[in-house]
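During the reporting period the student researcher (J.K.) took over the structure-prediction task from the postdoctoral fellow and processed the backlog of single-chain submissions. One of the processed entries is reproduced below for the supervisory committee.
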Amino acid sequence: MADTLVNVKADTIEDFLKNAQAAIREGKGEIGVTTYVITPKVSYDNKKVKKIDFSVKIDIKRAHWSGGKADDRHKKAIETAEDLNADHEEKHRKLAQDICDKMFKDAEKDLVGKSSKEVDAKIAEIKKAVDKAYADLDKKEGAVEFDDDESKDTISVKLTGA
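J.K. obtained the following structure tokens:
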């Protein structure tokens, strides 16, 4: 599962974040997004589940600095923002994978003999669990923030709650 990198040119950390947010089109301060699709493979017997296997496909789209005229301070800050965001999106990927791995096992057993409506309801339940975990993570560290104190040699870049 490769990440999709969206090239963003910028000369400053401020421009990078602004341009990245525009390119990614997520929430304020967000420069990456992790999406997932749950797919059931179901065989039915008399409209009841005979066998079911779930799979999840997880995709990450995130901003990647593709250059500009950044000085050393801004270049380091931009690279830090990109690294922090990559780590954050990997946490989303792991959350989705771990929750799906756990919930798929039980669902695949529980759904035998059930209807397609119950399959849809179970998928909705799994999605709700993943979405809640995503929201909880974003509340803790969903946006990139920086402090450009020009009297310092480096620009402080960190993740903050979205």
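The committee noted the following: The longest strand covers residues 48-65.
J.K. will present the remaining backlog at the next meeting.
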